[in-house]
Every structure is written in C-alpha cells, then in structure tokens.
UniProtKB/TrEMBL annotation, chain A:
InterPro entries: Beta-grasp_dom_sf (IPR012675), Mopterin_synth/thiamin_S_b (IPR016155), ThiS/MoaD-like (IPR003749)
Protein name from the UniProt record: MoaD/ThiS family protein
Pfam families noted in UniProt: ThiS (PF02597)
From TrEMBL, chain B:
Gene3D superfamilies linked to this entry: Aldehyde oxidase/xanthine dehydrogenase, a/b hammerhead (3.90.1170.50), Aldehyde oxidase/xanthine dehydrogenase, molybdopterin binding domain (3.30.365.10)
Domain of life of the source: Bacteria
Pfam families assigned to the protein according to its UniProt record, in alphabetical order: Ald_Xan_dh_C, MoCoBD_1, MoCoBD_2
Protein name: Xanthine dehydrogenase family protein molybdopterin-binding subunit
Gene Ontology molecular functions: iron ion binding; oxidoreductase activity
Domain Aldehyde oxidase/xanthine dehydrogenase a/b hammerhead residues, every copy: 26-132
Originating species: Thetidibacter halocola
UniProtKB/TrEMBL annotation, chain C:
Name under which the protein is recorded: (2Fe-2S)-binding protein
Pfam families cross-referenced by the UniProt entry: Fer2, Fer2_2
Keyword line: 2Fe-2S, Iron, Iron-sulfur, Metal-binding, Oxidoreductase
Keyword check for Cytoplasm: no
Domain of life assignment: Bacteria
Residue ranges annotated for the 2Fe-2S ferredoxin-type domain, each copy included: 4-80
Source species: Thetidibacter halocola
GO MF term (any one): 2 iron, 2 sulfur cluster binding
Entry keyword Iron-sulfur: yes
Length: 80, 748, 160
C-alpha cells in the first residue's frame, strides 16, 4: 500500500481523509486505486493531475513508485 | 569554455551566431502572415460589440451577395456534440447562443481580397439581445452577478457558491493558527492585479485549407503545431492525422500561441469555399479583444513572522477570472506564491471565476507573477516593520534541496540559495540612492515542464547532422539544440542544422511552452545523437572486425576503446557517413518520451526606481536579474530570456492592464493605449546567470524562459515604498495610483 | 473601388503596381510586391514593425497609403544588405543576439539605420528615444541598444 497525499479540497470526496492508502506500484495504479476507493475523485483525477513521487513529477502513468516513496497529488502543471 | 566539477565542454556555454539569424535580419524569415497560396482567399471575422448578449439572429444574405465573397460561416457550420475543453474551444472560436465578451467571434467570411472580406464582415447582420455583464472578478462572485454559464462548475466547487465559480482548489499543511500565534508580527493585505496581454508583436495569422475529403493543411504562427492540429481537428470535425500543420517563424508567443483562436475558421471557410486556401490575419485590436490575455486577480494574504525574520505561517486566498471559460491559473499562482520559502504552515485556497472577458491563455509562468506580487509585497512590508534586511529574510527562510515545498512535496536539486548569494554579492546593491529613489527586491519561481517530445536526427553523407524538432524556435532554441547536438557528436556547431518541422514529420510534440524547448527537445536531441553514435561505433567495429563494445566515440570519431581492442586509427564521422550506404544504410537517431528530471528555476530581482512626487511617474533607474539556469547552453539567449521576462514584468507592474468600460467593452485595444514598455522606458537590464546544474538533463539545463516575469511586479512595488513610503497593492502602478498612494501615505 | 496605377522605386528598382486607394503602403509592399520583410504589428503606427524609408524619411508604412508612393523612393529591409554584404547593423544584431523572435527586427534595423544616417554618434539615451516607436516584446531592448551602439562605432571607424 502506498500513502498518497491529497490536496485539502479533495477531502470532500474522501470522507475527510488527507492521506489515502492505496495499492499500486505505478503512478497510474495509484490513481486507479484512488478512484476505486473514492469514486467521487474520478472526474477531478480524470481532468488531469500530476503525481509527484518524492521530488519529481511522474512523466508517465507507468512510472514506478519505489518502496517507501512519498507521493503527492498536484494539479496538472502547464506553462507559458 | 564552460565547466562544472565533472566536465569541460567544447561548445556548451559558448555564444555562436544563431542559425536563423541571417534570415531574420534580412526580412527573409517567413512568419504567419507572410505565406500565400494559389487561389488564396482572405478571411475576416465578425465580432460581438457587446460584453454579453443573446444572438437572436444572424443574417448573412447581404454578405453572401457581395461580389467576391466565397463563403460565410457561423456556428451552424461547425459540428455539434463536443464536450469539455473541446466545447470551450469551439464556443470561443464561434459563439453559439450567446456572445460572451466584447470581441467574441460570431461569424466569418472569405472573399477574393482582404478589403472585400472586411466589407462582407460589415454586411453580416447580427441581432443581439444585450444581457447584463460582469468583468471584475470580485463582482463576478457577488450574489447578484449575472450568470455567465449555468452548469459550468466542475465537481470541486462546493455547494452554495455563485455559478460563476467554476473551480475550487485548496491545499495546506501544518497548523497555520499555531504559526500565527508564534509570530511577533502578523500582517494581512488584499492585492489586485489586472489582466495583461502577452503582447507578442506578431498578430495571429494562418493560412488554412480543407477539402471535402477531410484532408487539410495549415501554415500558422504557433508555439505548438500539434496542439493546433488536435484543437482544430476537434472544432471543425476532422481526423487529426488528416491535417498537416506547418509552423511558420513565430513573432513571439509567451504562452498566448499555445491554443487556437481563429485558426479553425480558416478551415471551415476553406471547406465551404470548395477547398480554396483561406488566409486570416488578426488586427491588433482583434488580438487584444479576443485572444488570450492572462487572468486578473484579487488576493488576500496573511503572513506571520518572528522578530528574527523567520516565517511561521502563511495563508492565501486567490480569486481569478480567466474570461468566460474555465482556466484561470489560480492553482499555479498558489503553488508558486510561497515556493521560495520554508513554510512550517500554509493554508491556500483559490477560486477560478467566469467573467465577460476573453478566454485567458497561458502567459509566461502562468499565475506565478500574481502570487509573487501578493506574497513578496507583504513579506517586504513586514521586513520593513521589523527592521530586517529583506535579503537576510530571504536567505534565512530559503528552501534548499530536501526541504518541503510550500505546496507539499520535497524539492530536489534547486539553486535558490546560490541565486540569493549571487544577488547579495552584486555591486548594484551597494550603489547609493538619492532623493525619491528606492530599491526593491523580490524572488520568483517556476516549475518548468517536460511534456511530450519527439525528435529525429539523421547523419548526412558528409558527416554533418540534421535534427528535426517539433518545438518552434521563439528565442534561439535552434542554436541551443545545435550546440548540444554538436557537443554530443563531437562535431562543429556549424555542422548541425536544426529544423522545426510540420506535424507529418514527427510524433506528437507539446508546444514550446513551460520553458521546455531547450530542456526537452534538447534532451531528446542528445538521446537521438547518442543513438546514432552507437550505430556509428557498431559500423566502425564491423569494419575493424572487433566487438562494438570495444569501440568508443571521442571527438567526432570512433576509436578502439583501449589497447586490447586493437590498433586502428580513429574513424571520423565523415568517413563513416561517407560509406553508410554500403555499410547498412542511413544512420539516424530518434527519441520519443515525456522527459522526467525537469529542473525548477528560482530567480531574484533587484530594482532601483525614482518616483516623481509631482506626477507619480516611476522611472526604472537600474535593474538586476539573477536566476538559476541549471546550465546556460547559449548564454546570450539565456540573458535575453531574463531581460525579456523582466521587461514584461515591468510593463505589468507599471503600465499594462485591460481597461473595461461600464459597457463591458475593452477601452484600450491598441498599442497606443495598451502601453507596453518602449526602449526609452528602460535602462540596461543587468543579468547574472547562476548555474546549479539540473541532474535530470544531460547538460544540466533547467528552463529559463518563465521565472523572469515573476519578481518585477513585487520588486517594483517594494522599491516604490522604499522611495516614497507609499505601499501600492493594486496593479498597474500607473502615475495616478502612485500619486494617490503617496498622498494617502502622507495623510497617514 | 477601382485601382490606381502606381509607379515608384523600391530599394532602387523601378516597380509598378495597382493599388486600391484604401490600401496602405505596407499592404502594397507585402501583397502587391511580395516584399514581406516589413511587418504589420498594429496597423496604427504604434509598433514600428513596418518601418521603411520614404524619400529619405523614416515612416510607418502602415500609415502611408500605397498611392502616396507614386514617384517616390522606398527603402525596405530587403534593400539593406548589399548583395552578400550585410549592413553593419545587421551583423551586429546577430553578433549581440539582439533578436529573439525576430518579428520586430526588420523595422528596428530600418529605424536604426535612419538614426545612424542622421546621428552617427548617438548616446544610449538618443538611441533609446529614437527607437521608442519600435516595440520589441522579447528582448527588453538591452541587446538591441548595444548592437546599435556597436554598429555606430564600427561605422565611425572606431574599434568596438
């Protein structure tokens, strides 16, 4: 199980939980796990988010999540 | 020769002439409006004069009857059933039931000349029922504000909010209230920034062609030909691969040319005109009224600080309108606002709000300048109150590698401390100031971006190399990519030609945005070159009859890796290339990826201003930009990015801003009234390139394009307070506002 | 509207074109003569991207009618280099990286050439005020000013 840190306004979809434990060894599996556990997150996650594994944004849904990694969700980043 | 602790470089860090320089100083370079085609028609767009109006009826009969008119399109000519972002793009391309802002396109015409097209556009009769409108972000959230679009809110918006609030976002960590309780000083202020336009000098222009078979072509000034392709294909209802989009040279973008505006209209008109190509060139007022400015913002910030300058907590609520569609960069603004500081506790929330204004587009570090204006202004005021040197405060609270960012995760390799040290050491900080003069300091941050990238490289028969990239060259990226490719291959810079290619030539590339061209296309070009090197080593090994692993690539030639590999003279790239046709065929390299390892960039700016107490006019006396580039591949163009970003930030701070009348019409849609900085407004802009190499890039590159626009807004506000005692909290800080603030400060 | 026959000289060459009386000189240069080096950034004389020399005078070609060129001499960016030899301003712009997107560059080069012909030894302030009618959004002007000053020095025969 991996602890995924959510941003605070997502807690209305997770019964108030800020950190959600989900199974998965890739960024994509964590997102699927989140949606399975809390379907209300679906539209927000599908709208585009960044999965940050330790200090780097995962470039792919297949990016592996190492054991003990710190995982944060962030809004999808874009630039000018 | 550039150098770091590990390596020396032959070319990286030098300043050769840019490959496209000759074309661009002789007028030969072809931009969006410079292309013509046989049988070409000219397009013109009919735009709403109302900020908000129901479109009762569009009568195109008079326009169609005009001699020379070949096509007229309205929303009825575009496919239905689009959803999400595609619907937004289509609705912005041509209004459906309602015009949502002054300048919103409602119809378009194509004719045999530009003058006939313009005349036909005037003959299109539109019956409007004018509706109540709102253009200010705070007013748009008020209970009595007119609703711009029912049901536009996404599921993040809590119940009970005004329907104009379409997205809500919050993050926090730590105990903010406890942090404020520990502080010796807690201050709270509200700031406002006005929408500004990217202000690229080249108006949007395209030449589009679409046949009844669904196949089309487009020549267009854009930051990203694949984005244009996908968006146009969706809006006019064709398959993406059937549209070939060729990017012209681009006359500036700054984020504003990452999306579509009138481009699909050229295709829709062409299709209706029997496939004749249609050229559309926007006027400046169309650019200002109807293409993406950035958002306007209203921001509350509260910060706690100890007497020694330690920040204990920060709280921010940002409201932004990005026009009549979702997409104001409120999330990015909040992420960046506290990024340069170790924050024991933060609480941030943001609202994306609709208003009757044009759909905002990305603008250089989208959101970051607004957030910095609020937070860096308040921090400066607090330093002043506590008698702390603002450089000391920045150093004391600066984030370092491994520190938790205000927005959550930990930072990897970053160079903020190095930037602050270089700033402090700069001679500009010890220049004495005179009467009515003041110095302001501020930091800024941008993430930078990797994004979808596809690059192809091929060795020519003479041992030179061509690189095909999908990121249009806006500020010298052909030069930086050529330098990195030549460095990797071990050949002269002049032996590499970098071509920006059309959509048919490569896989999908994201635009030149997010400061990614030199980072991502550069990284991919290096990978592609290494792929080719491997193949060249293999060919040499076959020639010598030794194992490929026993061959290494040194200075543009294959050579045996050691004494045991055998004794052979080096085989140069030209020798290998000269016979590649008979040794296995073309030698090339490709790389496709979404590169990880993006390196963030921090900057710190120092500005000296003189304020005229009679007029409130602010003169920039000197300006310093210090920023971490990771590594400057071509330092001149890195300096150019720093200087250009600073100049745009100075314009945003002092002059630029959208002015809407009571009627909701934009009152300053020309450069005379939307005043960007001119040469006589500015001094030389001093730069210091700090190099803390990004471990995620083969040459250490971080993006350099965006961070530089962020610090000027607060740095100038801070300098004005230092000069006058007056604190400005609203942009632009034009003479009337500065004068009023000085009077208010004197009145006490 | 019926068109008017215009005979003029562009970069020393005699040319003829038919102009609608509403068309600007910029339109005629670009669309009638195929000289697209002069750019339209605003159409209101505020950005200077369309700068040309008309009978020795620096003008915004978007503020001149095409028919006004009758019997006059027009100099554009396309005439600035002499064959293979770039004008020192053009060389210095490349050398100093005084362009990024390059869209304002033709107009700035034409305007700077006009400056150096009237004032071969301008101060930085004089260069800045002369070029205040030429907008550049990319560079912050720093490298442009340096390139112009350096070209002026070279034209005066001084080592830069």
């Amino acid at each position: 199980m991996v602890a995924v840190h959510l941003w605070s306004s997502l807690t209305r979809f997770t019964d108030g939980k800020r950190v959600v434990e989900v199974p998965g060894v890739t960024a994509g599996e964590l997102l699927s796990g989140l949606k399975a556990a809390y379907p209300g997150l679906g539209p927000v996650l599908d709208g585009g988010v960044s999965v940050v594994i330790d200090d780097a944004i995962a470039p792919s849904l297949h990016t592996p999540v190492p054991d003990g990694a710190e995982v944060y969700l962030m809004q999808r980043l874009k630039g000018g | 020769m550039a150098k770091d602790e590990y390596r020396e470089f032959r070319l990286v860090g030098t300043r050769p002439d840019r490959p496209d320089g000759l074309d661009k100083v002789t007028g030969r370079a072809r931009y969006g409006a410079d292309m013509t085609a046989p049988g070409m028609l000219w397009g013109a767009v009919v735009r709403s004069p109302h900020a908000h109006a129901r479109i009762v009826k569009i009568d195109t009969s008079k326009a169609e009857a005009l001699e020379g008119v070949k096509a007229v399109v309205t929303r009825a000519d575009l496919p239905t059933g689009l959803t999400g972002e595609d619907w937004d793009l289509q609705e912005n391309t041509l209004a459906g039931e309602r015009a949502l802002y002054d300048g919103h396109a409602v119809a378009a015409v194509a004719a045999t000349s530009a003058l006939i097209a313009q005349e036909a556009a005037r003959l299109v009769e539109v019956d409007y029922e004018v509706l109540p409108h709102v253009t200010d972000v705070d007013a748009a959230m008020a209970p009595d504000a007119p609703v711009i679009r029912e049901g536009a809110a996404d599921p993040t918006v809590p119940e009970g909010m005004h329907p104009n609030v379409v997205k809500y976002f919050a993050f926090d960590h730590g105990d903010v209230e406890a942090g404020f309780a520990q502080a010796d000083l807690v201050m709270e202020r509200t700031y406002k920034t006005e929408a500004t336009h990217q202000g690229y000098i080249e108006p949007h222009a395209c030449l589009g062609q679409l046949g009844s078979d669904g196949k089309g072509e487009m020549w267009v000034c854009t930051q990203g030909q694949w984005f244009i392709r996908r968006m146009c294909a969706a809006v006019v209802g064709i398959e993406a691969a059937q549209l070939r989009v060729t990017p012209s040279e681009i006359g500036g973008g700054f984020g504003g040319k990452t999306t579509i505006f009138m481009e699909p209209l050229s295709l829709a008109l062409s299709r209706k005109a029997g496939g004749r190509p249609v050229k559309i060139v926007m006027s400046r007022s169309e650019v200002l009224r109807a293409t993406g400015p950035t958002a306007s913002a209203s921001m509350d910030v509260k910060i706690g600080m100890k007497k020694d300058g330690t920040i204990t907590a920060g709280k921010a609520t940002f409201r932004m309108q990005g026009g009549a569609f979702p997409g104001a960069p409120v999330d990015m603004a909040l992420y960046c606002a506290f990024a340069p500081y170790k924050m024991p506790a933060v609480e941030c929330e943001g609202f994306d709000v609709l208003a009757n204004r044009p759909k905002c587009a990305a603008y250089r570090a989208p959101g970051s300048p607004m957030g910095a204006f609020a937070v860096e202004s308040l921090l400066d005021e607090m330093c002043r109150k506590l008698g702390i040197d603002p450089m000391d405060m920045r150093m004391k609270n600066a984030v370092r590698e491994g520190d938790r960012a205000a927005y959550g995760p930990k930072f990897g390799s970053i160079g903020l401390v190095e930037v602050l040290e270089a700033t402090r050491a700069h001679p500009n900080l010890s220049i004495p100031l005179g009467l009515n003069q003041g110095r302001g300091i501020a930091s800024g941050y941008w993430f930078n971006h990797g994004g979808e990238t596809s690059v192809s490289m091929a060795i020519s028969e003479d041992g030179t190399a061509q690189v095909s990239v999908g990121t249009p060259d806006i500020g010298g990226s052909r030069a930086s990519i050529a330098l990195m490719t030549a460095e990797t291959l071990g050949i002269p810079y002049e032996d590499v030609r970098v071509n920006v290619v059309e959509t048919g030539a490569l896989g999908v590339n994201e635009p030149t945005h997010g400061s990614r061209a030199t980072f991502a296309s550069g990284k991919a070009a290096v990978e592609a070159a290494q792929h080719a090197i491997k193949e060249m080593c293999r060919r040499a090994a076959a020639e010598w009859g030794i194992e490929p692993e026993a061959v290494e690539w040194v200075d543009g030639a294959a050579q045996p890796a050691g004494p045991n590999a055998g004794k052979f003279p080096p085989m140069t790239i030209a020798e290998i290339a000269g016979k590649m046709g008979s040794t296995g065929g073309p030698i090339s390299g490709h790389h496709e990826s979404v590169p990880g390892g993006v390196g963030e960039s921090f900057g710190c700016h120092v500005v000296d201003v003189e304020v005229d107490p009679e007029t409130g006019g602010v003169k920039i006396l000197r300006y310093l930009v210090v920023q971490d580039a990771g590594r400057a591949i071509h330092p001149s163009y890195v300096e150019g990015q720093y200087q250009g970003g600073a100049a745009q930030g100075i314009g945003w701070a002092l002059n630029e801003g959208y002015i809407y009348g009571e009627d909701g019409r934009l009152q300053n849609p020309v450069f005379l009234d939307y005043r960007v900085p001119v040469a006589s407004d500015l001094p030389m802009i001093d730069t210091v390139i700090v190099e803390v190499p990004n471990p995620g890039h083969p040459y250490g590159v971080r993006g350099v394009g965006e961070t530089g626009i962020t610090p000027p807004l607060p740095a100038i506000a801070n300098a004005i307070q230092a000069a006058t005692g007056a604190r400005l909290t609203e942009l632009p800080m034009n003479p009337p506002r500065v004068l009023a603030a000085i009077k208010a400060a004197k009145a006490g | 509207m019926s068109k008017i026959h215009v005979t003029t000289k562009v970069n020393g060459d005699p040319v003829e074109f038919l102009a609608d009386p509403r068309e600007t000189l910029l339109d005629c240069l670009r669309d009638r003569l195929g000289l697209t080096g002069s750019k339209e950034g605003c159409g209101t004389g505020d950005c200077g991207a369309c700068s040309v020399i008309l009978d020795g005078r620096l003008v915004c070609s978007c503020l001149v009618l095409g028919v006004e060129a009758q019997g006059k001499a027009v100099e554009t960016i396309e005439g600035m280099a002499q064959g293979e030899d770039l004008h020192p301003l053009q060389r210095k712009f490349i050398e100093h990286a005084a362009l990024q997107c390059g869209f304002c560059t033709p107009g700035i080069l034409v305007a700077a050439k006009a400056l150096l012909e009237t004032n071969p030894d301008p101060t930085e302030t004089e260069v800045r005020y002369w070029l205040a009618g030429n907008l550049c959004r990319c560079t912050g002007y720093d490298k442009i000013i340096r390139a112009v000053m350096d070209a002026a020095a070279e034209l005066r025969g001084e080592a830069a």
